[in-house]
Amino acid sequence: MATWSNFNLQNSASPLMEQIIFFHDHTLIILIMITILVGYLMMNLFFNNYINRFLLEGQMIELIWTIIPTITLIFIALPSLRLLYLLDELNNPLITLKSIGHQWYWSYEYSDFNNVEFDSYMINYDNQTNINNFRLLDVDNRIILPMNNQIRIMVTATDVIHSWTIPSLGVKIDANPGRLNQTNLFINRPGIFFGQCSEICGANHSFMPIMVESISIKNFINWINNYS
Transmembrane residues, as ranges (predicted)? Predict the structure, then answer.
């Protein structure tokens, strides 16, 4: 989860988020190189006193400054397209989780199991509560998912547009009324991961957090048996 004075992206907990971070770093390096080059050229233009009274055209330099940005955009576009297709790739999911957005809480259904469904509300801690609790992020019913397995997430809403977002898992998908959107998860380590609705959905938009707990497949099966 994000902490104070942390200016970097959150540590990834899925292969897709790792790829997103790599692409971010790749694009940032290109932007820094462009900024340094343009800044250097502008400083030279400010401080030199060269004048060429006979300069009418420069086809070669115009060709160069057209081709170089094109090549730069290709170096950004190809990894971006690859990542877009990776985000939509879904191979043999182990389980399906259906997430339904309401004003202002989430409902979850484990479609592969009978009667495994629940609502998830934010826990309203006051200032006197234990400091170890996560204010505005804790929920009464967590999502329990097995790690190292492909998981399908189906997202929809009943009232207005919401957005199911967990940064450390690289997931952000809109929940639209009357539409069922699909994405996938692959969590590669145990832990608790936090997210929030990232679509402005009304007065209490800030108070519908998402909490995912990743556990081993053995513990997940025990949880399902105990829940049923």
Answer: 20-42, 63-87
